[in-house]
Automatic annotation (TrEMBL):
It comes from Anabaena azotica FACHB-119. Pfam families: LSDAT_prok. It comes from the Bacteria. InterPro entries: LSDAT_prok (IPR041482), TRPM (IPR050927). Residues 39-237 form the LSDAT prokaryote domain. This is LSDAT prokaryote domain-containing protein.
Length: 246
């Protein structure tokens, strides 16, 4: 059953949210959120709470100078995990920093998030929602990673035939699952080399140097590409933009 409600996450902008229980409800849920027109979709997956400070500082530029401006210029939907941590926090802050107005859609398990004014928290590692997101789809689940297949499905419904890609930055164990779900859906995964952890394991696999079996299998799918974090801003923008236009 779809339930629609508003969220007050920051003073500058109201957000809207829906809860869903089945994938078949997604078209209705997204239409209730006002997200029914087809647009390019940029899915962002990767590190959350365990990004090192050094990696965090290095990848911040990617969000402010590349990913948020691309989404703004294309009017794209951006879809991620929606919580106030890691890459999700970075894209939220980048959207605010560039005064963006592109839809930023967080997909998160209802049993792991803390809603505004919520007085009872049922999980030790529950996390608040990122306050600069505009829309949230709250899905069934009491574990991190339960949202992974839903992120893929939300992106597919939103794109509705328009181009979509997944950008993978840093990441831990769940990021392997996120990458696999994108591959299963036939969505290209752009791995940001030099961003650390899972991303760099996948890049090694693409270069034939992997020791991680999951990375080898993903690299063999043909659905992974890579670009270096330290590439020129113009090259990063051109590469990712072209993928979202074709």
């Amino acid at each position: 059953m779809v339930k629609f409600f508003s969220l007050n996450l920051n003073s500058q902008q109201a957000a809207v949210a829906v809860t869903v229980s089945e994938a078949v409800e997604l078209p209705q849920a997204l239409a209730q959120l006002g997200l029914s027109n087809s647009r390019p979709v940029l899915v962002i997956v990767g590190g959350a709470s365990k990004i090192s400070e050094a990696d965090f500082l290095r990848i911040q530029r990617l969000f402010v100078e590349v990913l948020a401006p691309i989404a703004q210029s294309l009017g794209a939907y951006v879809v991620d995990g929606g919580t106030d941590a890691g890459v999700m926090q970075l894209i939220g802050k980048a959207r605010s920093q560039i005064n963006g107005d592109f839809p930023l859609v967080g997909v998160a398990p209802i049993g792991k998030v803390i809603l505004p004014e919520q007085t009872t928290v049922f999980s030790e590692d529950a996390t608040p929602l990122e306050p600069h997101h505009t829309h949230f789809v709250l899905v069934p689940g009491n574990n991190w990673g339960d949202e992974s297949p839903w992120i893929v499905q939300v992106a597919t419904v939103l794109a509705n035939g328009a181009p979509s890609i997944t950008v993978l930055i840093n990441g831990g164990e769940i990021t392997f699952v996120d990458a696999l779900n994108s591959v299963i859906a036939g969505r290209l995964v752009m791995v940001i080399a030099g961003s650390g952890r899972t991303a760099d394991k996948l890049v090694s696999a693409l270069h034939g140097d992997a020791t991680d079996e999951r990375a080898k299998q993903l690299a063999a799918s043909g659905c992974l590409q890579t670009i270096d974090l330290e590439a020129a801003k113009e090259d990063l923008i051109k590469t990712i933009t072209n993928l979202l236009l074709n």
